[in-house]
Hints:
CATH class of the largest domain: Alpha Beta
Bound molecules: FE2/S2 (inorganic) cluster
Low-confidence stretches: none
Helix content: 25-40%
Number of domains: 2
Number of strands: 5
Amino acid sequence: MTHALSLSVNGVAYSLGVGGGQTLLSVLRDEVGLTGTKEGCDDSECGACMVLLDGQPVNSCSYLAMQAEGRDVTTVEGLARDGELHAVQRALIEAGGIQCGFCTSGMLVSAAALLAERADPSEDEVRLALAGNLCRCTGYQKIVEGVLAAAAELQTARG
Ligand code: FES
Ligand code: FES
């Protein structure tokens, strides 16, 4: 049995038919066709599936799509604006914070949420914000450096 679901994804309105037990991750990847959000553990452990729901990071693998009714979802594809990468996307590339890339979309979403709330986070605050995002490749240091560099760039841009 399918249920009607209306939601906004990266500013675009969608009306879909989804299963009652279908996860937000499944809807984003399989119905909406946005595959930047990754399925890692499928158990709220790794953060690869992180998206923003009304601006707050959630693990979309453990979130029922129906709970997103009427809400705004932002995926990694929605972080860039007008063809310009988000500052944290550029910074992670420049810092060398991406290896296999499987964790990257979740890291970026968590980092973007942090920078939207904290203009000048400390290293500890960055590490805390990324605590739910596991990376098996980078050792985290370059990711943290990238997020701090993005924060500095955004502050400079704001004057
Ligand atoms: Fe959702 Fe790992 S896939 S937390
Ligand atoms: Fe490979 Fe993070 S870059 S898991």
